[in-house]
Amino acid sequence: MFNAAAHDAGKAAEGPAPLLSVVMPIYNEQEALPLTVERLRPILDDLGIGYEVVGVDDGSTDATPAIMQKVRQDWPQFRIVRFARNSGHQAALTAGIHRAFGDYVVSIDADLQDPPEKIPEMLSLARERNLDVVYGVRGDRGTDTAFKRRTAGAYYWLMRKLVGKKMPNQAGDFRLLSRAAVNALKAMPEHQPVYRLLVPWLGFPSGEVVYVREERVAGSTHYPLSKMVRLALDSITNFSAAPLRLATWLGMLSFVLCVALGIYTAVEYVRGETVPGWSSLFVGMLFLGAVQLICIGLLGEYVGRIYSAAQARPAYFVGYDSAEETDDGTRRVSAYAM
Ligand code: UDP
Ligand code: MG
Q: Which residues pair with 106 in a beta bridge?
């Protein structure tokens, strides 16, 4: 279906001054937020283009909502989107990206770990090379704890295995998306998108900006181990039915073991070195175990297929259609409409 809204938004990007949206998930950042605003605002003002900052308050319970109201009073470009309750970083990102009006959308953390100074660089790279995605790639994680580095290293290793090499290593949620990429993401059916996997999955033209991950300016991380485990589980199950297949493999393994041990018990039986009843019990137990696991695996295969059917991801995004060509004939017109 040709998406007229996407078409218009894509065209607007051709003009001299695109609108930039900066999406910022904010959760209990009463110490960090004022510092972030102080550093972010001059950078955006200096860009000399229209912009908005979409601050998504993820159900903060401290002074954050009041601070956000105050910021908005003398910074009209600061938009406030408030969640009724804490719903998590990725949910806040989703709301911000879906509600942003910009031709380009940059997502950034509220704790100044992602340097806002890189935003102009991302924007000019995207405009010069007509890119749809610019990843902020962490050049150095020196300021993170050894534990965070290890777990993050393992996470990115696993994710690269699942999504494939397209995924840039160490790219978090500091990135720029074009309107076309945002529209494609909005068309994705998942309710719990994991953007750092979904965006590389789109496979749109992309570039990278390397940055140094700074230390949190104030406050402490809201990503305890439990949330990291949840992100990892969401990431794996969003992209692969492999865990469901585990039962099939285990079942096959125990079946092979059953055959081998069956031969062994038969030999022992013939040699008369067994307690009566042992052979039949042992083989029977192994056999039943294997059959059960294989059946569970079989169910898993079907559940996996139902799952990907329920996910209903679009099979393709059209990047160009000559029937939709503009006068100068240069731009991809359809903006990845489906
Ligand atoms: N955040 C959020 N909801 C949450 C947890 C975090 O919106 O439930 C925001 C937080 O305010 C920050 C960003 O997500 O802007 C990253 O969180 P944090 O800095 O705590 O994570 P870390 O950088 O330690 O991984
Ligand atoms: Mg942080």
A: 22, 176
Site to probe by mutation for ligand 1, drawn from 22, 27, 107, 194 as the one with most ligand atoms within 8 Å of Cβ, is: 27
| Amino acid (one-letter) located at 27 | Y
- pLDDT tens digits along 250-289: 888 888 888 888 888 888 888 877 777 777 787 788 888 8
| Residue-level length of the chain | 338
Convert the pLDDT of each residue in 82-133 to its tens digit.
998 888 898 899 999 999 999 999 999 999 999 999 999 999 999 999 999 9
Catalogue the E-assigned strands of 160-205: 171-178
Pocket lining: 144 vs ligand 1, CB cutoff 6 Å: no
Q: Are 20 and 50 in contact (CB under 8 A)?
A: yes
Task: Tell whether ligand 1 has an atom less than 6 A from the beta carbon of residue 52.
Answer: no
Q: Whose CA is nearest to atom 19 of ligand 1?
A: 221
Can you give the pTM of this predicted structure?
0.75
Is CATH 3.90.550.10 the classification given to domain 4-221+314-324? yes
Q: Which residues of 253-286 are buried (b: 16+ CB within 10 A; e: fewer)?
A: ebbeebeebbeebeeeeeeeebeeeebeebbeeb
Q: Which contacts qualify for 305-314: CB closer than 8 Å, 24 or more apart? A: 305/241, 307/241, 308/241, 311/189, 311/190, 312/189, 313/188, 313/189, 313/190, 314/184, 314/187, 314/188, 314/338
Q: Which atom of ligand 1 lies nearest, measured to the CA of 58?
A: 7
Ligand 1 pocket residue status of 109, Cβ below 6 Å: yes
The residue whose CB lies within 8 Å of the most ligand 1 atoms, and thus the one to mutate among 23, 108, 109, 212, is 109
